[in-house]
Amino acid sequence: MRSRASLALGIGSMILAAWAVVSALAWPWKAALFPLAIGIPLFCLAAAEVLWVILRPEARIATQDFQLSDHLPQDVTLRRTAAAFGWIVGFFAAIVLLGFLAAIPLFMLAYLRLQGKEGWTLCTVLTAAVWGAFYGLFDRLLHLPFPQGWLLAWLGF
């Protein structure tokens, strides 16, 4: 059962990646860069998975699910999973409400300070470095337009 699911997932990933790459080939270079940078490696990795499932039947039998938290109580595992999910949803909400250019440093600073419990100096330096790299690469170098967040657009910024 597991091998059929793995094979189906691999083939589905290959189809999706191939569609993304072929579609992106007709786009301008700046717009096609991200789908090509993700789609080509995804296709290669999915093809390797499909070949692994087809050519190595003995490996399918010996494979077990990878579990990190068997030794932890279920409430701890659920709390950690909920926290990770909350951070992801919070980041998405910040992007929608404030836009990428404001959400990146806000999220980075909040995550390092609240979740990582790092000091203010390290938080500030890393946040500035990540925001500078993001802004420098995507805004200044590639000139990718990021939409304004809903809240900032509503406030007129």
Summarize the topology.
Elements: H1 2-24, H2 29-55, H3 57-62, H4 74-98, H5 100-115, H6 120-141, H7 150-155
Helix pairs in contact: 1-2, 4-5, 5-6
Description:
This protein is an all-alpha fold and 157 residues long. It has 2 domains: 2-62; 74-155, no CATH class. The chain has helices at 2-24, 29-55, 57-62, 74-98, 100-115, 120-141, 150-155. Helix 4 packs antiparallel against helix 5. The model has no long low-confidence stretch (mean pLDDT 88).
Give the uncertain stretches in residue-range form: none
**Helix-strand string:** HHHHHHH
Please provide the count of β strands.
0
Using the alpha-carbon principal axes, give the shape: extended
Secondary-structure-based class equals mainly alpha
Approximate strand percentage: under 5%
Mean pLDDT: 88
Number of helices: 7
- Kindly provide the radius of gyration, computed on alpha-carbon positions and rounded to a whole number of angstroms: 21 Å
Tell me the span between the first and last alpha carbons: 54 Å
Domain module count: 2
The largest pleated sheet is described as:
none
Helix content: over 70%
